[in-house]
Design a protein that fits this description.
Blueprint (H helix, E strand, L loop, with lengths): L7 H8 L1 H22 L7 H4 L2 H18 L10 H17 L6 H29 L5 H28 L13 H24 L8 H9 L4 H10 L3 H31 L16 H43 L6 H18 L9 H15 L2 H7 L7 H8 L1 H22 L5 H15 L7 H4 L7
Helix pairs in contact: 1-7, 1-8, 2-5, 2-6, 2-7, 2-8, 2-11, 2-12, 4-6, 4-16, 4-17, 5-6, 5-8, 6-16, 7-8, 7-12, 7-15, 11-12, 11-17, 11-18, 12-14, 13-14, 13-15, 13-18, 17-18
């Protein structure tokens, strides 16, 4: 199919729903560990509590990719029905997460939230490949990254913004502060509205051969064989990208799960108070606990705000690439390699910074890596696979995102960081080493079409 080139506004509209998706991911990534700690989780238990997120992605994304490849509605298209279903479920889960009365309830809501976000997210990746000619693929994924950067920065700062308006950061023992509850409710609203904007401003191409499409759709009991067949026949470039993705996503899962305990303890000297260390029946001890808890909550707000910097820097990184890729080709391999290594340096700095303000520099460098992770691998992959299977391939590619997170959650982060010492900040060192390894692994990519799309007459 000859696809026309789209304007910036058209690409912006089709990607705008990612603003809401990233509100969900940024609130989850920046503040779920804080919620777990508030509800009594020990810091070494936090990665395991996060296991719901990658496990859900491992199951949901290939299924949604497979189903969306076989969906067509003249009114709603192929991918948009999944955007909408995921948005409704995600918004409900986002609202209720900070109201969890117990740790197991919060872990359960994380499971529901991540499954719902995945329902919306996977078809967005496929939509770029569906709608854009190959010469605009890098441009399209970079525009998505620009929107993701905006969402990350705003959502990461929401509790601080809300707190500055006078909403309380204090709460009773085991209760999430109102500032976090209001932030999550705001995120739920933005998630739904931004997805609706994309649903109603974007059209989709119908299947090229409707008769063949209907025949494929009518086949029964093909899901598991098709998935296994596509896994077995994945292109060599996809496998090599998987190595890069493994180290990249191990690093970012480590950040999402461990940055709050690591930085509140190491940089702000305000770790989460442990209830068993206080005599709560003694008024003076209870007051000391409440004071320590309020310090921890305010430090957590600050950590969230500093983390938002990586969204802001990824946004500027993406903006530069948007301007550049609209007119010129880029070497995706070297852009990705350089960005990942810079992000690794950002993590490695955290253990040695002399004051908290240096976290801005750390997270700025991490943002370069994040901006590249959200665009370059998908641009390289989309140039290497059958466009008729774009949905299911993008879903299978997600395995290279979730498997490292599962390994990290099942003890990988705690085991490796404990080799360096018991301090939580060692987890950030592990994340830094992983991103450097991910950067070096780009030497594995040798497919010229994946590295630099050669512009042809279209």
């Amino acid at each position: 199919m000859n696809k026309r080139k789209l304007s910036f506004l058209e690409i912006w509209n089709m990607s705008f729903g990612f603003l809401g998706i990233q509100f969900g991911f940024a609130l989850q990534g920046g503040f779920m560990s804080r919620i777990f700690q508030t509800l009594g989780a020990a810091k070494d238990d936090i990665p395991l509590l996060w296991i719901a997120a990658p496990l859900t992605g491992l199951i949901v994304q290939p299924i949604i990719g497979y189903l969306s490849d076989r969906t067509w509605s003249p009114r709603w298209g192929r991918r948009r029905p999944y955007f909408l279903i995921g948005a409704v479920l995600s918004s409900i889960a986002l609202f209720f997460v900070p109201h969890s009365p117990a740790l197991w309830v919060a872990a359960g809501f994380l499971w529901i939230l991540d499954a719902s976000i995945n329902i919306s997210m996977e078809p967005f990746r496929a939509l770029v490949a569906d709608k854009l000619p190959e010469s605009q693929r890098s441009y399209g994924f970079v525009v998505q990254t620009l929107i993701i950067g905006i969402g990350t920065w705003v959502a990461s700062n929401l509790p601080s913004f809300v707190s500055a308006l006078g909403v309380s950061d204090s709460a009773a023992q085991g209760v999430v502060p109102m500032s976090v509850k209001v932030a999550f409710a705001t995120g739920a609203f933005v998630f739904l509205v931004s997805i609706l904007y994309t649903v109603f401003t974007t059209s989709e191409y119908p299947p090229e051969d409707m008769e063949e499409f209907e025949r494929e759709k009518a086949k029964k009991n093909q899901f598991i064989p098709d998935i296994l067949n596509n896994i077995g026949s994945m292109p060599l470039t996809m496998k090599r990208l998987g190595v890069i993705q493994f180290f990249s996503w191990f690093a970012f899962f480590t950040m999402w799960s461990m940055a709050n305990p690591a930085l509140t303890e190491h940089v702000f000297n305000s770790p989460a108070p442990v209830e068993s260390e206080y005599n709560m029946s003694d008024a003076q001890q209870k007051e000391a606990y409440d004071l320590a808890n309020t310090k921890f909550q305010k430090a957590s707000n600050a950590v969230g705000s500093y983390m938002g910097t990586y969204g802001l820097s990824s946004m500027f990184f993406a903006l530069l690439l948007v301007v550049y890729t609209s007119k010129r080709r880029i070497n995706r391999k070297y852009v990705h390699m350089t960005s990942l290594i810079l992000g690794g340096i950002g993590f490695l700095m955290m253990k040695y910074i002399p004051s908290e303000e240096y976290l801005y520099l750390s997270f700025t460098l991490i943002g370069f890596a994040w901006g590249s992770i959200l665009s370059m691998p998908y641009a390289m992959l989309s140039s290497s696979v059958d466009p008729k299977k774009m949905g299911v391939i993008m879903g299978i590619f997600n395995m290279f995102i979730v498997i490292p997170q599962i390994v990290a959650a099942l003890g990988g982060v705690v085991f490796i960081s404990n080799l360096l010492g018991k301090e939580a900040i060692n987890a950030m060192t592990v994340a830094g080493v992983c991103l450097v390894l991910a950067g070096v692994s780009n030497f594995l990519i040798t497919n010229r079409k994946a590295i630099t799309y050669e512009v042809e007459n279209e």
